Structure of Protein kinase domain-containing protein:
Amino acid sequence: MGFLAHDAALLIAVLILGFGGEAAAMLASGNVTVPSAATLAHCPKTCGDITFDYPTQPPRLFLNDGDTELVDGIPFALPANSPGLDVAFSRSIPMISGVDVYNVSWTAPGRSFVASQIQLNFTGCDFDIYWLRDINSRALVCAVTCPSDGITETIAKQSCDGVGCCSSTFPTGGISSLKFQFVRRNNSNVEGQARGEGQTNRSSLWDRISVETDLMLLSWGFVLDQQPDCAAVAKNKTSYACVSEHSTCTYELIGIYPSYMCMCGAGYNGNPHVLGGCLPGYNPNPQKVNCSRSCGNISVPFPFGLEEDCSARQEFLLNCSDAASSTLIIGWDQYVSEINVGKGIMTVSSDALPVFGTAPYAESTATQDLHWAVANQSCQQAQQDISAYACVSANSTCLGVNSTEKFVSNTYIGYRCKCVDGFDGNPYILNGCQDIDECETTPGICGGPCHNTVGGYYCTKCPSKTQYDTAKKQCTQTKRQRSLLLGIVIGFGAGFGILLLGLSTLLFANRWRREIEKKQRRKYFLENQGLLLEHLISSDENASDKTKIFSLEELEKATNNFDDTRILGRGGHGMVYKGILSDQCVVAIKKSMIIKQSEINEFINEVAILSQINHRNIVKLFGCCLETKVPLLVYDFVPNGSLYQILHSATSNGFFLSWDDCLRIATEAAGALSYLHSSASVSVLHRDVKSSNILLDANYSAKVSDFGASRLVSIDQTHVSTLVQGTFGYLDPEYYHTGQLNEKSDVYSFGVVLLELLLRREPIFTSESGSKQNLSSYFLWESKTRPIKEIAATQVREEASEEEIKSVASLAEMCLRLRGEERPTMKEVEMALQTMRTKRFKSYQAAHEDSTDHSFSQVGYSVDQPSKRCYSFEQEFISSAEVPR
C-alpha cells in the first residue's frame, strides 16, 4: 500500500543515476528516514540546464527504457494538476530491402507513470503511419512522401508538413504505451531508391524511419495497492508522502489508478514531500531593490512588479513590452490600463477579457474588471503567519475576497489589503498608508474652519460677528449694515421734510433697481446670443409655428416666482417647474445648471435645431428665456409622469400598463429616437435614453424628453468624442471605454428600457441576496441558463405569448451587444417592434373576428397627426381628476 514500499523503489529504478548521496542510500537500503530541507541542503539540484528537487538527482537523466530523457525540471507542486515531467524519446529504424512494414513502440517506465499532451514528428519517405490502438484496431496518423529525391532531412523537419516529415498530436488522457506501424506505399521506384540504384544525391530520408517527440508530458503519482481515500493513506505515517506542513493530498490522478499526489495547501508553494518544503506563496519583502514601478504612464505598485524578485508572487509579475506607448501586459496578450491596490481591481483593456479560473484572479460579471487577492487564504489564516502577511503598512486592514459578487470563474476565496478610513496609499508596503487631509481634498467640507487630524478631521464655528471666507480659508469680519436714515426729525417742519425726502428716495431707489434689473436682463440676453437666436428663428421661412423667446417676467408669473410647490422634478441637468402661461397653456419650464460661456453658442444652436423638431412622440420645445445667467427652456407639459414611475414607483396607485401598451410605448419611443438619428435636418444623439425620460401624455402615448445631454452630429460624422455622460445602468460600455459617442450608444440604452418592460425591474436593482445587480448583466447571465419566459415578469407572462417574449428578449440582446457595430439601428428596432404589434393585432382580429369588442389599442398604426401646440389648463385639470397618477 505504501509509497516507500513500492513507488520509491520504482522511482529509484527508473532514474538511471538515482538520487545520489544520503537520500538514495536510505531509500535503497529500506531504512526509512523522512528527509528534511536541512538534510538535503548539500544534495546537487541541477543537471546542465535542468533543475529538479527531492526525490530525484542528476547529472543527465534518462528513464529505465534508456531513451526517454528528462528535458526540463521536475515540478512537485502544480496547483490543481498532477506532477509532470517534460520528457522526450526517439526511435530510428534502418530501411531493409524487401521489408514493407515496420513496427515501433514505447511503454511508460512503470505503473506510476502515464503520458499526456503528446506530439510526435515522423520522418522518412513514402510511408503511411498507423497508430495501433489494440490488436484488431489501427488508425491512420499521417503520411510522408518524398517527391524530390534530393530533399534533406533538415529541410523536411523545418515544416514537417508531410514532405519527408509529418506531425501528429495524440489525446491528452493518460496513455501508458504507444505502438505505431509504418507501411510502405505501393511504389515501383521504392526498391530502387531504397538500394540507391541510379542515385548519386540520395537523401538520408530513404535510409531510415525516425520518430521524435516534439512535446510529451509524463505524469506521475503514488500508486496504491488498494483503493482507500487520502484520509486512509495519511494514517500510515511511515509511508505517507505528504510530510510538509501545509501540504494536502489529492486522490485518484487521471490515468493512474488507484493513486494519490501531494500539493502545498492554500496560500503556500514549494515541495510538499519534505519537511518545511511548503513555503508561503506571498513574499512581502522582495529581494531586489530599486525596482521599476511604472510602464510609461501606468503605475505598477507593489505587490506587482516588472522584474524578477520585484513582485510579491510570480502571478503578479507583469510585462512592460513598450514603455513609450504604455503597453503593459498580463498573461499572453491582455493589456493592463490601471492597477488599483486600494480596491483590489485591475482594469484590462481587451476585446475579450481573460478568464482566470485559479488564484489570484477572478473576472467580475458586473464591472468586467479583474479582481485579485494576494493569497488564497482567509484573513484569519493569513494573520497567523506574520512573516508572510501582506498588510504590512500601519493603518491598513485585511479584507476578504469572496462570493459577495458573481464572478465568471468559480467562486474565489482569498484576502487583500486596504488602508483604513482616513488614510490612502499602498497597504502592501511599510508606511504606505498616509493620512488624508480632508480639509484640502474636500474644500468646504465643514462650511467653516476645518482642522485635520491623523485619520480624520473636526470642524469649528467662526466667532460672533464674523463669517468664513472660503477663498482665504479663515474667519473675517462681517460688513456692517448702514442705516438709510439721514437724521433725526427736529420739529414738525424738519420731520415732514425728511419724510418727503425719504419717500422720494424710495421711489427713486425702486426705479433705479428696476433699471438695473432691466439692464442686467438685457446683458444676459446679449451674452446668451439672443440676437443670434432671434435671427435664426425669423430666418426660418418654413416654420409655421415659431419658437418663442419668453421674457423672465412672463415665466416668473407662470411659476409664481418659481415656487417650490411648482417643482415637477429634479434631474442631472437641472430642475423642472410647472407653469401656466397667460393664455392658460400649461407648460414645463426647465431651469438648467450653470454652463460655461463657451457653450452658449452650442446651446443656441441646439435650441434652434430642437425648435424645428416636430414629432408626435418627442416633447415639443415652445421656446426659451435668455434673460437669466443660465437660459430657461419651455416645453410642452406632459401630465402622466414618466414610464419609470409607472413601472417602478410605489406611488402609481395600482395602475399598470398592459402588454399592448408596453409594445406601443416601446414602438413610439423607438420611432422618436429613429427620427432624431436619421430624419431630422441634423442628427441628434440623445445620450441619456432611459425610462424616466420617456414621458406619458393624457392618452399614455410616449414623449421622449430631456435633451440636456444631447449632442448634434453633422452628416459626414460617424461619432463625436465627449466626456462620458449618462445614467449608470443605461450607459453604453463601448462609449464608457472609448469616449466616442454615436447613435449605437442610444440603441444600447434603449435595450435596457426593453428589459425594464419585459422584466419589470429597475436598471440597478437589489437581488434576493441583498446585493446590487446590473439589469443588463443579470439578463444576459440568466438567459444562458434559464428559458426567457421564466425570467420575464409575471404580468408579462400572463398577457404576452411565448413568441412575443422571445422576440422582445432577442431584440434587447441585440441592442446590448458590447460592440456598437453589431447592434441594430433605431430604425431597425422600430420596424421590429412594429412587426410584433402587427402580428399581435392580426392574431387578435383572427380570434375576435365575430366579436364587436375592438378595444385593442391601435395608436401605433394611426396616421401621424400634427401635435397640438400646447396642453391647456382645462385639459390638465380634467386629466388630473380622472386619470390615475
User: Anything to note?
Assistant: The mean pLDDT is 78. DSSP finds 21 helices and 48 strands in the chain. The chain has six domains: 3-83+223-280, 87-220, 294-435, 437-471, 527-636, 643-846.
